[in-house]
Amino acid sequence: MTDVHPAQRVGVLADSQNLYHSAQSLYSRKIDYSALLDGAVRDRSLVRAIGYVIRADSPEEESFFEALREIGFETKIKAIKTFADGSKKADWDVGMSLDAITLASHVDTIVLCTGDGDFARLCSHLRHEGVRVEAMGFGGSTADELVDAVDSFVDLSADEDRFLL
Question: In the CATH hierarchy, which fold is given to the domain comprising 9-163?
Answer without folding.
Answer: Rossmann fold (3.40.50)
